[in-house]
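Can't paste images in this forum, so I'm doing it all in text. The chain is below; anyone willing to post the predicted structure tokens underneath?
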Amino acid sequence: MSQIWESFLLGLDYRLQDWRSFDHALFEGYLARMAGLGMGVLRLPLVWAAFQPEPKRLSDRCLRDLEAAMNTAAAYRVGLVPALFSSEGNGSLRPDWVFQEGKPTLEGQVYLLEVLLSYFRGHRAILAWELNAAGAADPGQVEGWRDYVFPAVRQADPRHPLALGVGGDELTGGNRPLLEGLAPHVDLMVIDWTGPHGLAPLACALAWRLAGKRSLVSVRRAPSGGREAETLLRGLRKAGALGVLLPASGDQTWAGEEHGEALGKVIAEAWVVAEQPAAVAVDPDSFYGDPLAGWETLAREWQG
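Text version of the structure:
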């Protein structure tokens, strides 16, 4: 299995509407097609509300499904990036018990991390762990994540890289607490990109400039065909991205034939991660002062 810092990663973002209806046959079908196309990584969001119905109790069913998914991924030699504190398809993120006196607590979050990472840290399917930054959406949580949550993760699994999952809007909108308060304490970022494909490489370059971290980019919209896929892939590689995750769904069929040629070129040419990330001329203090104007200026310059 490729190391996360070496080969340019190709994969899928496998989003489930509801973990209570995990379809193992469908999941294996995705993995089989991925393996056939040479794709080696799959992001697997773990819906927080489903996995942790109570502060000190995890769902037995979700844990069994997760272990089965990991075993299947290992059989196909596909590395997993489980994303914790993720939302459901309807946008619900946090379990009801999380809030105490109107503010989210950290104890339950740490319990989830300690149990999951301690149990699965030796599994050969794990490529990296991701913490969804929306779990620290309250500015008051940033220091707690930095001082309490991150150390718990490192202690539970010191072996695997730790990623911070951020939305593209948090990056282009200049979420300084996340980009300067949390990102320096992880190994990489996973950018959930909903914008135009042509600006995804710029998002990687901006993440490097503001947070000093390489990024794995998950695009919400699949390229319309092989030519658009190749343009996206080459742009991300040039910008210094660690790789790309194409969208997949736990209740729809994805075959990938329309992207097969572009993906095949990456495999045939044995792409490696660019040694130097792309540079963008932006002063962080100025950007944070007016991120909307800063992003618009960068986008115009990037597109020529």
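The chain has one domain: 9-278. The first helix runs from residue 24 to 37.
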